[in-house]
Design goal:
The protein has 9 helices and 12 strands. With 284 residues, it is of the alpha/beta class. Strands 2-1-3-4-5-10 form a 6-stranded parallel beta sheet, sandwiched between helices. A two-stranded parallel ribbon has the order 6-9. Strands 7-12 form a two-stranded parallel ribbon. The structure holds NADP nicotinamide-adenine-dinucleotide phosphate (NAP).
Length: 284
């Protein structure tokens, strides 16, 4: 059996991994929430790894409150940078492979074409900067890493844009959604499958990979499709980032080029509308 530790196991992606774990019979999973293992505490991480051996650690733990991070820099750093570094050092010492999740927010959003793994990072928010610094901490401490950057995660678990839109549609007759940020949504269960396929493949082609569903849309387009597929009748309006102000600045364009991971695992691309349909069925 291949032993797999999941940190941040109670978050959105952690729960998606848990929900498909039975389909991967050769993997033996341990899911830990933040109260079981705080990745920002070096001694706690060292201790845990010295008592338990894992072939892989999937790090789903992160400080993910993008706007709040602008006011909580130290806390975001503690989890996203120190936490990632602690795991990398512990994995190195215990000969484990680290699969770490990162984000499209490491880019500044000025590109016109989908970002490749080789493109220069230039985060424009505290969250994005801490996630980029977390990547760098892993790269400099542990060669045996897969860093997977993903974008616009949603699922039936936790809180996310899809669930927020459905909730707001029950409370309001009209909604305005930004139409000047372009990206690609990703069903977190599709990402969870890809992560477990990396383990099953036993690939040693370590490095950075991009994964998202396929397509290029704005948040407005996503909201429109959520309501269409859910038969929700609501007046939906376009707005822009200048009108809908948030504490953190978000990239205007953050579509990821995913061809590297598609060729590594011989994956079939999944169109974003298809995955949304799967998720909405689960939510119902
Ligand atoms: N959500 C998105 O749209 C998105 C987009 C791109 C990339 N990502 C990346 O994808 C990954 C998974 O995101 P997600 O949506 O699953 O996030 P999430 O639902 O917010 O889950 C993050 C988990 O990390 C845990 N955590 C926080 N601090 C911790 C600590 N010090 N030690 C251990 N666990 C800790 C949290 O536990 P508590 O709740 O107990 O604090 C929570 O369960 C993250 O790396 C995120 O940066 C997310």
């Amino acid at each position: 059996m291949i032993r797999v530790l999941i940190t941040g196991g109670k978050g959105q992606l952690g729960q998606c991994l848990q929900s498909i774990s039975n389909d991967f019979k050769t993997l033996d999973f341990v899911f830990l929430g933040s109260s079981d293992l705080d990745i920002s505490k070096k001694k706690e991480v060292e201790n845990y790894f010295s008592k338990n051996h894992f072939d892989y650690c999937i790090n789903c733990a992160a400080y993910t409150a993008v706007d709040k991070a602008e006011e909580e820099l130290e806390l975001a750093k503690k989890v996203n940078v120190t936490g990632a570094k602690n795991l990398a050092i512990a994995c190195k010492k215990n000969n484990s492979i680290l699969i770490h999740i990162s984000t499209d927010f490491v880019f500044d959003g000025t590109a016109k074409l989908p970002y490749t793994e080789e493109d220069t990072t230039n985060p424009i928010s505290v969250y994005g900067k801490t996630k980029r610094d977390g990547e760098l901490a892993i790269i400099s401490n542990l060669p045996q890493h897969f860093i997977i950057r993903t974008s616009w995660l949603y699922s039936e678990f936790g809180s996310n844009f899809v669930k927020t839109m459905l909730r707001l549609s029950e409370e309001k007759k009209e909604l305005s959604v930004v139409d000047d940020q372009t990206g690609c949504p990703t069903y977190a269960k599709d990402l969870a499958e890809v992560i477990l396929k990396i383990i099953n493949s036993q690939s040693k082609k370590f490095g950075i990979y991009h994964y998202s569903n396929q397509g290029e849309i704005t948040w407005y387009d996503l909201a429109k499709e959520i309501f269409k597929q859910s038969n929700v009748d609501i007046n939906l309006y376009k707005t822009d980032s200048n009108t809908f102000k948030t504490l953190a600045t978000r990239p205007k364009y953050s579509v990821l080029n995913t061809s590297k991971i598609h060729s590594l695992l011989k994956l079939e691309p999944i169109q974003w509308k298809k995955s949304l349909e799967k998720c909405l069925k689960e939510i119902k």
